[in-house]
Every structure is written in C-alpha cells, then in structure tokens.
Amino acid sequence: MSDWEALSDKLKALGVELGKEKRFGDAPAVQHPIEKVVDGQFWDSIYGPAFFYQEVYPPDYCHGATPLWPASTLATICQWASAHRLSRDDIGDIIFLDTETSGLAGGTGTYAFEVGLGRFSDQGFCLAQFFMRHPGEEPALLAALSEFMTDMKAVVTYNGKSFDIPLLNTRYTLMGMTSPFDAVDHFDLLPLARRLWCLRLESRTLGNVENQILGVTRGDEEVPGYMIPDLYFDYLKTGDARPLAGIFYHNAIDILSLAGLFSHMTAILQDPFTEKTPHNQDIVALARLFESMEDHQQAANLYRKALNTHLPDELYWDTIKRFSFLLKRNQDWQGAIDLWRKAADHQDLYAFVELAKYYEHQTKDLVEAQQWTLKGIKALKAHHTPVYQYNLWKEDLDHRLKRLNRRIAGLASG
Asked: Residue 275 falls within a domain, yes or no?
C-alpha cells in the first residue's frame, strides 16, 4: 500500500469527504511539475521532503509606500491584542502567516495546500511558501512549518483567528502532530483594520486595505481568491502546475501586505498624531479605539483634534456625544457641559437629559434641571422621531419633570 493510499484510508476513517471529483489516486503523469514552474527547493522534514519557495527582501524594502520593518515600538499594539509585551528585539520571533486552502468551509475536509510564512532576520524579511504537491505530503509540510517557526513568540494573520489558525490546528491534530500555535500570542489584523478604517473604507478586505492604506496595486499575475481551490484541484488531476504560479504570487503579496500593515499599524498606534494619520475620519476611529482600550487621556486628545478638523456633519455630532460621555466618566464636568450645551443648540435630545441630570444631581439646582427638562420636551415635539423612540424619550422626560416638580414643591412648602 502506498503512503497516499494509507493516508487516504486514514482520512476516510476520520470522516473526510474527498468527493468523486476530488478523489486522488496515483499522481498523474506530469509534464509541468511545480518544480519547473516555481524555482523552489525541498525542506527535509522528519516526514520527508516538503517543497517550498523562499525569497529574502532587504531590510529597507518597501511594500507600496510602507517599509516592511517596523520603526516603532510594539507596546501599544501588544496592549490592543492583550499579548505579552514584545520589544523590537523580538521582531524576528514574530511569524506572518497566510494559507491557501482547498475550500473556505473549514472543518476536517479542508486542508491548507500552501502556507506562506514570513519572518524578519539579519538579512531582511524572509518569505517562505510551503506547497503540498499532493495530499500525501501533508505531514511533511506541517513538520516543515513547525521547523521554520522555531522560537515563534507571536503570529500575525488577517482573519486568522477565525480561519487559518483553527484550520492548521485541525490538520496538526488529524496528523497526530503537536500544533506550534499553542500558547502563542496572535495578532489578527482584520479586527484592528475594521476599527481603524471603519469610518473611511467601505471594504476592509486585505486587498482593499493594502491598496488604500499601503498603496499596493497587484499585478496581472494576481489570481482571485475564489478561483484558488479549483486551480489546485485541477492541478491534482492534470499535473499541470503552470496555473499555480499566480497562486504563489497571490500568497506572497498577502504575506508582504501583512508585514506592511503590521509596520503601519504599530506606527499609528504608538504615535496616533503622526502624519501617517492624515484623514479626519481616521482620527475619530483612533479616538474610539483608545477609549475602548481605557486610555482615556489619549482618546480625549484625539477627540479634541478631530473636532478641530472638518468632519462630515453626522460624524461631528456623534463625536461630540461620544466625547461628552468620556468627559462625564472622567468627571470633567465643565468640558462635558460645554459639549452638551452645544449639542442642545443642535437640538440633540440626549443633551437636554444630561444637562437636567447634571443640575439635579451634581449642583442640586432643581430649577435649572427643570428648565432643561422643559426644553427637552419642547425639542422632542419638534423632532421627527420614530414612534417607539418618541415614546421612550417622552416617558423619560415626563417622569423626570414630575419628579422635579414634586421636589421643588416640597422645598417651597417646607
């Protein structure tokens, strides 16, 4: 029995569905093997050779307009990721990872036939792409990955927490191997990209972010991601690896973009007032991010900066509201009052309620609180508010007014 027949039987016993169109027997006669299409070499793992392509980019290499090598400290991005504190001396132990897979569903029937890895070294940025010439080479590929990632302290992906790492963990488990990702810090840049550019970019796919943020434009070699599984299955049936050159290109750009984004993100998180944040919407997004990280001072500084720029009208008033509540939590009452008065002039209902609360509970000025409540009721009547929201506001304001009237009458009678 061949190695692949034994592996195939093992996979079937574990419930892996290969399917009629994706059943692999003996390797087809090959006239264009991957070795002739990609100038690669073989990694001698304990499970046999694993094909891989390697390229080293010099330390000053820029991906688009962004240097790959991080120039900033990693303290803030580690804080964001709840990771162990890493210094710039640890940069060589951070692995950048992206997979190309047989499908997007995940589970035991999906495997990674190509895994791109990148890490910094004294020579520059080393990119290695490991490729599975047929499924029987999966143990060798996984072993080679583990060996390449020796001393790894953290892994950087784009949506890897939901897809790449769980998939690889599953493959390691199915092959009876120990995953190298256990207890390793993970920087998944997709959630961070969504936070940083949610107000400016409609799409935060890696392709759009690398284009809009890093200034990267992919070449004609690019293969759309949705085509990749079918191209690989065609290769397994025909042995013609020529169409796979585009997959290697696609994966390489993904890895370089990961490194470039990591460099860019560390810079703007470490110094959010840098010229790398030229867009006003991004300043607001950064303020929200720092607020969520409980760095209230940095968030306040960014909110102030954003409000001194030209923001779209809706975003401006939303930022006034967010900033006012941050000031309230920090008991900066004068700053909050100034913003609430401005919002009340704009007829924002929450501002009337907050001013009424302040005068009732902080200064005990019941008459002033009553006046702001009456102004809020008047503003509500002029608002074009959905019925359910109108009823909620009315109930709150009416209840507040009745309580204040009662308290004021009680003081007068006493």
From this structure: no
Question: Which two structure tokens, joined as six digits, stand for 198?
Answer: 């949610």
* 334 and 406 share one domain: yes
Mean pLDDT of 368-380: 97
CATH number of the domain residue 208 falls in: 3.30.420.10
Pair of tokens at residue 333: 């009452």
In a domain, 180, yes or no: yes
How far is 239 from 29, CA to CA, in rounded Å?
7
Distance CA 79, CA 85 (A): 8
pLDDT in tens, 101-145: 998 766 667 899 999 999 999 999 999 999 999 999 999 999 999
Nearest to 252 by CA among 204, 213, 192, 210: 210
Instruction: Answer with the one of 270, 296, 324 that is the final residue of a domain.
Output: 270
Give the range of the structural domain holding residue 266, as residue numbers without chain letter.
Answer: 3-270
Domain shared by 366 and 301, yes or no? yes
The pTM score is: 0.88
The torsion of the CA quartet 294, 297, 303, 304, rounded to 10 degrees, works out to: 170
